């Protein structure tokens, strides 16, 4: 049965941190444009400077340091992790050993083709191919760094295939913990609460250092003798930029880190950096405006989406761009995620905590019968029950026969639906949430940042969500971490070993 338990109260310290981070996000919306002439005297010199302490930046820092370079990582927030820490943790790649254990046939060509097609063939083919081919090596590298993965392989929300690996630790914490520990052990200098203000270009146009400001103190210039890596994330937490490039999504909440404010986009014009794909803002079914708690399912086999008329309106394993359009077309842009006891059991501990917090806050519903659940949701009871009955017939038929059905037939033939038959039954209202911004800086397959004339800016690389050349109009689920961690590893190594 459904138990609410005691109301959870956040400690004042945690509340204070949250307010601090929100304040940092707001102040970053109006970046200070300061002329950054190459200084006569540098504050400090490193071989490699990395801007951003999320997965891409940590991977670049560790890779560069492992190859003998002196490295400085700057992060404008008071803690490391960025959007990687908030991510589901799923990493998409062709991994023959684990996929074979799970009876999955896959190939690099298939992963490449699905990534390109999902993005409307707007990703840079050479960049996408590099990510696909190098992602399995990144998994092995991460394991060397201390990340432990389950042997199970998953098809997650919007991933289009069963090739996602999941760390043992919840969400993205495994990557952040392992890489930050390794970075510190390798002597990487980490400067928190330090914001990028500008990039120093010399007379030939080469990036030779950065101008930063720490804790509203004086501006200081850090020299990079080998190269700079921009890994400072996307702009999903910048309402101004979202409204500018995707006005149809203006006003939506976001699940991004407060540091994801697209600071480098403001610098692109003066630095001559090419930008691409900025209107392709990705949403997921997340928190409606005003929601205090966060609860979200990741495995499409475990839930259905029901609108306020009690109808199921989309195949839940569809591409994220398709799901976004489907939710936009629903009455009042509202719908509910509906699942049962099995879906709860498949969640990681952090997600289970979020779900029960939502229940305590009256932002999720739990009932022992479908009649009671429909009444709590305020949807037509008989129509709702009929939708669930039809869905369960599909799920049980597929489970019973095991017949192979063409892949695009329905969800149950693709991911093996979990029948929603075990009480207690759950539902929570969801709305569109800005989740990822596939557009950003143009890069080549080596991660070098490109000028508007298509030529690379010497000394300047980028990795992760700050770039715009990988995903095109739609990102496959699990490809975000594959992109960030793979290109972070590659560019960090490349800069460090360059003569």
How many E-type strands? 17
How is the main sheet built? 8 strands, mixed
- What portion of the residues fall into strands of 2 or more residues? 15-25%
Helix content: 25-40%
Mean pLDDT figure: 89
The general outline is elongated
Poorly predicted ranges (pLDDT <50, ≥5 residues)? 4-35, 401-408
Distance between the first and last residues' Cα: 65 Å
Structure classification: alpha+beta
How many helices does DSSP assign? 16
Q: Work out the radius of gyration.
A: 23 Å
If you had to describe this structure to a student in words, what would you say it looks like?
The strands form four sheets. Strands 1, 2, 5, 6, 7, 8, 16 and 17 form an eight-stranded mixed β-sheet that branches. Strands 10, 11, 12, 13 and 14 form a five-stranded antiparallel β-sheet that branches. This protein is 36% helix and 18% strand. The radius of gyration is 23 Å and the shape is elongated. It has 16 helices and 17 strands. Residues 4-35 and 401-408 have low confidence and may be disordered. It has helices at residues 12-27, 55-66, 82-86, 96-101, 108-118, 125-144, 173-185, 239-245, 263-271, 320-328, 341-345, 349-360, 370-377, 381-401, 411-415, 479-497, and strands at residues 44-51, 71-74, 91-92, 164-165, 189-191, 194-201, 207-214, 219-230, 275-276, 282-286, 304-307, 335-339, 365-367, 425-436, 440-441, 448-450, 456-462. It is α+β, with helices and mostly antiparallel strands and 499 residues long. The longest helix has 21 residues, at 381-401. Strand 7 and strand 8 form a beta hairpin.
């Amino acid at each position: 049965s459904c138990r609410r338990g005691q109301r959870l109260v956040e400690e004042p310290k945690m509340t204070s941190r949250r307010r601090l981070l929100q304040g940092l996000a707001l102040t970053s919306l109006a970046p200070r444009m300061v002329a950054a002439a190459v200084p006569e005297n540098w504050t400090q010199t490193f071989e490699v400077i990395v801007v951003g302490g999320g997965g891409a930046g940590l991977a670049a820092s560790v890779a560069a340091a492992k190859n003998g370079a002196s490295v400085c990582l700057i992060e404008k927030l008071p803690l490391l992790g960025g959007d990687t820490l908030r991510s589901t943790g799923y990493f998409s790649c062709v991994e023959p050993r684990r996929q074979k254990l799970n009876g999955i046939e896959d190939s690099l060509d298939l992963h490449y083709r699905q990534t390109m097609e999902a993005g409307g063939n707007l990703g840079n083919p050479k960049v996408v191919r590099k990510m696909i081919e190098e992602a399995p090596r990144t998994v092995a590298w991460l394991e060397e760094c201390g990340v432990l993965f389950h042997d199970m392989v998953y098809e997650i929300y919007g991933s289009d295939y069963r090739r996602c690996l999941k760390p043992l630790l919840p969400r993205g914490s495994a990557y952040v913990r392992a890489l930050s520990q390794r970075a510190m052990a390798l002597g990487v200098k980490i400067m928190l609460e330090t914001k990028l203000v500008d990039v120093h270009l010399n007379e030939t146009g080469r990036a030779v250092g950065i101008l930063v400001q720490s804790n509203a103190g004086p501006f200081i210039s850090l020299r990079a003798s080998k190269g700079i890596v921009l890994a400072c994330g996307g702009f999903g937490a910048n309402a101004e930029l979202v409204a500018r490039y995707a006005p149809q999504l203006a006003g939506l909440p976001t699940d991004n880190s407060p540091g994801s404010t697209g600071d480098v986009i403001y610098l692109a014009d003066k630095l001559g950096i090419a930008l691409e794909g900025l209107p392709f803002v990705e949403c997921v079914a997340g928190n409606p405006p005003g929601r205090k708690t966060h609860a979200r399912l990741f495995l499409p086999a475990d839930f259905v989406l029901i609108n306020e008329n009690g109808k199921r309106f989309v195949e839940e394993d569809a591409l994220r761009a398709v799901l976004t359009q489907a939710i936009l077309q629903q009455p009042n842009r509202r719908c509910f995620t509906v699942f049962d006891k099995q879906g709860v059991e498949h969640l990681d501990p952090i997600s289970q905590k979020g779900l029960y917090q939502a229940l305590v806050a009256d932002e999720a519903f739990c009932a022992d019968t479908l009649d009671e659940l429909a009444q709590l949701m305020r949807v037509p009871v008989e129509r709702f029950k009929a939708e669930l009955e039809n869905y369960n017939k599909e799920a049980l038929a597929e489970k019973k026969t095991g017949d192979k059905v063409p892949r695009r037939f329905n969800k149950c033939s693709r991911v093996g639906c979990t029948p929603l038959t075990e009480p207690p039954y759950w539902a929570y209202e969801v709305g569109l949430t800005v989740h990822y911004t596939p557009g950003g800086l143009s890069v080549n397959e080596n991660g070098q940042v490109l000028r508007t004339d298509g030529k690379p800016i010497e000394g300047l690389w980028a990795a992760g969500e700050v770039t715009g050349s990988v995903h095109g109009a739609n990102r496959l689920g699990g490809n975000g971490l594959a992109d960030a961690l793979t290109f972070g590893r590659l560019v960090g190594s490349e800069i460090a070993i360059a003569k």
